Amino acid sequence: MISESLKELLKDDVFAAAPAEEPQRQHYFIEQLKKVFGGSDRRYTAAVVTFGCQMNARDSEKLEGILSEIGFATGADEQDADFVAFNTCTVRENANEHLYGRLGRLKSAKTKNRDMIISVCGCMMQEADEIEKLRSRYSFVDIIFGTHNLYTFPELLFRLLRKRSGSVDAFDDNGIRMLTSSSDDAVRLDRLMRYSGTASGQKDIEKLLRRPVVSVWEGSDRIVEKLPSKRKYPFKQGINIMFGCNNFCSYCIVPYVRGREKSRLPEEIFDEIRAAASEGVKEIMLLGQNVNSYSGGINFAQLLRQIDSLCDETGIERIRFMTSHPKDLSDELIEVMASSKHVCRQFHLPLQSGSDRILKLMNRHYDKERFLERAAALKAAMPDISISTDIIVGFPGETERDFLETLDVLGRVRFDSAFTFIYSRREGTPAAALEDPTEESVIKERFERLLGFQNGIVEENLNALAGKKCGVLFEEISEYDPGLITGKTEQGITVHVPADPGIIGQIRDVVLEENHKFYFTGSLVGKESNATRIGG
Ligand code: SAH
Ligand code: SF4
Ligand code: F3S
Question: Would you say the CB of residue 66 lies under 6 angstroms from ligand 2?
């Protein structure tokens, strides 16, 4: 990959000429990288592999945006791509195992193609021991960065090319708290240069130049706006309204890897929504770990009201948001939702446990009564609302009695869907220090019992919808049957309908016909949707 013109581009003065301010600095590196990856006869390819939640999915879209701008064709298969990024999650242990499995499978591809660039970023990279593990056991990884400095990716890629061509640059921390970086390699290289005359010295230099470019920040209060991003679906988009989390639920690692809450300014959010609308987006999802504590000068309910009006002006039809912490779900938010035109009648309200004792140990700041009251308030204001939840089974010390309290809440709220997880111990969280005498088999049995109970509720809830007419946003051709097009109702129910792929990206009225337990089949009615609400 290192040609004569590339050598010219990678000279010290090109690197030194980069502006210090952001995002101009990254735009500068994007321009330089375009000359490498955009100016070649063949199209370079990239694969971005995402684990974890909607936040990570949105971050991956930003990475893909940068890669496309530089000249890569994104969406390639990871085994033969020129560039591969793994955007990692660490919320539960199995998320971590997932990464190592995928990396292991990529090793032989990298052996065949030494120019391949492998990058690992995201939540797992905010943990120092995971970075060490990559450095020692997965040394074929080339670039490592974290959640706070995703936007510096163009610079890191440029630094990698420089490193491969023999120049190593230290990181100037600019007052940023660094968790770790590869700055030491600059010092090491200097030292090795003194022995470069010998064969073994030369070998050591080569080895050093294959070490990864690493830059992981401990935290940051910066939000850098206006960098490229690429949408996975042309008609729907996630929009970050805030980053980080201040809640410190005792089991959860997210506040440690995503840092403290930072809200974007309303105007920045509105600009992004206007731009999305002008590109034909029909549905937006406002993203935050706890959107209810949004504080960009106005609160979340006020922000939502303004976004609802903005959607009237811009033609965006649906607004969703996630996640909402039950402790901060205000009456004002319920009123705004109920009177809005575009906010979907869907609410994700994570319960975690129905036991007051466990909720206290989890540091959730609500009890069973309060949760039931909030769910009832949502249903009273919007009888057609669909409520989903998250449940953790097997929190340390959970007894059968605690577990039955959880089942009791499921039976009373009758959630339309529930994401259920077995508790996973995360090093560094307060819950990791709690004793847990419960046998694994007992936890598994509870988990199965919960699934069985909840699946019955989902089926009954869906049965009640058979025959109803509702608006469906069509998203893609069905994975199982190319004659069917798959879409989502306002409530988030998946529907498969025989139709022409031309309806993808449109909202059309559908009659829900047959309940297949977790989805419906149905048929189109009428030409255009007036976005009928279920039951309407
Ligand atoms: N901010 C969101 C959740 C983000 S994590 C919220 O507060 O709802 C998504 C879900 O993962 C959580 O709701 C929880 O149910 C689950 N989870 C988080 N940490 C976990 C752990 N250590 N073990 C098992 N499940 C966990
Ligand atoms: Fe984790 Fe709790 Fe924050 Fe959600 S609110 S991300 S569960 S600490
Ligand atoms: Fe996972 Fe990070 Fe999301 S840990 S759940 S990807 S915020």
Answer: no
